[in-house]
Amino acid sequence: MKNIPSLFFKIALAYAISYVLIQMETYAFLAGTLILFAVLCAIMYLTRNMSRPASSGQ
Known about the structure:
The chain is an all-alpha fold. The protein has one domain (about 5-45). The protein contains two helices and no strands. It has helices at about 5-25, 30-45. Helix 1 runs antiparallel to helix 2 (about 30-45). The longest helix has 20 residues, at about 5-25.
């Protein structure tokens, strides 16, 4: 139950971003690309200290 407001915020944010991109006909591709790049940078930053398990193959 505690995650419902967080989920609602994430869905509302995704909807708002989609709405803005649809309204920006001329720059939609550029804005979408920049948003995806920012999301990728955020994911890479947040997972920078995660280590992969050692491979057991060789």
